[in-house]
Amino acid sequence: MTIVNNRGKRFRVPDATIKRLPLYLDKLILLQQAGVQEVSSRQLATSLDIKASQLRHDFHYFGGFSKPGRPYLVDKLVPALREIIGIDEPVPIVIAGAGHLGNALANYRNFERQGFPLLGVFDVDADLVGREIRGVTIRPMSELADFIRERGIRLGVLTVPLDVAQIVADDMIAAGVTGLWNFTPTEIKAPDHVIVRNERLAVGLMCLSFKTKRIGMPEEMR
Amino acid sequence: MTIVNNRGKRFRVPDATIKRLPLYLDKLILLQQAGVQEVSSRQLATSLDIKASQLRHDFHYFGGFSKPGRPYLVDKLVPALREIIGIDEPVPIVIAGAGHLGNALANYRNFERQGFPLLGVFDVDADLVGREIRGVTIRPMSELADFIRERGIRLGVLTVPLDVAQIVADDMIAAGVTGLWNFTPTEIKAPDHVIVRNERLAVGLMCLSFKTKRIGMPEEMR
To answer: What is the interface pTM, i.e. ipTM, of the complex?
Structure first.
């Protein structure tokens, strides 16, 4: 990604740095909610399993955010990172599929706190339609496309059954969604202007299992 | 991580390679379930947004898994990767907290398919205790530690409310859990021999939002 600094100079920021920005922001929002006002690069980095020098290097691309030797001010760093990541304004989301996982995600308060208010939840099941999840009414799936179009929603969460995943995704994309968070265990075909993020929960368990098996081994065998 | 090959030679595998192994395995299990028998490095890599050369390089550390120019045999590659990752035997898990997220994860069939059978779900809520989730009865939280100890369970999923997260984590660790999958938005303090994986769902949305904002920009600005 290319950044333009205050003096109009353009420079490239490595992808690896970009990928860490949401992790920093997520952590800082937690600190902010806990009432923490200042945090050192070491504290912030350690809690994320990153080296402090790496974090300072990452922040350096954006002006550093603090004077050398001084802690970061959480209330200043949060909006600065929000702006860089592009979520300084709330980014509304919809959830397609109100089954177990859709329901759990709709109940996950943290999305809102992080800047992603939930505007709509959709399902084909007549028993679910009309129910409320934290003030959001479950609507019929047939209204999904119009809802997205009318409200200009760009991010959609896909938690429908496997066999209808592509159809629902196509509907969402045709209606204007450019970012799809896919929780179904299938690949979604999408045009080039759409980003699909496949959330593979089992991969988390695999990584965890792999690491625990190695923790007892001597350092050089890990 | 250090690997010993057939000839007894030891060599180091980069962490980045290790981190990609679960992604490969996850994808291959999906292909296997879909009845796919052969896959080229290009097909496998492309579906994971990785370069084919990178994938072949990763596999090379473990003998390559196929002859040059030949596709991988899915049914051979899956058990080979399972063994390397250390999940050739099923790794049982328990879930502490049967709220929305715990319930959704307990209903997630893919964990079992990937080698992580769910043995127990626990909650303090008397209304939930005794209910079944896919054949697994929700038990009182007070039985969690004994259950873990008696069955030698090493992986635990933490989906309890924030304010009891550390207490429940301590219980699980004292009972023998060495890998904790933490879905609560708090940091869990754990001894050195325990791996805590913090699953920060909102980070997924941040990354997705960030990428969609850049997709319309010229290549050099992304």
So the answer is: 0.84
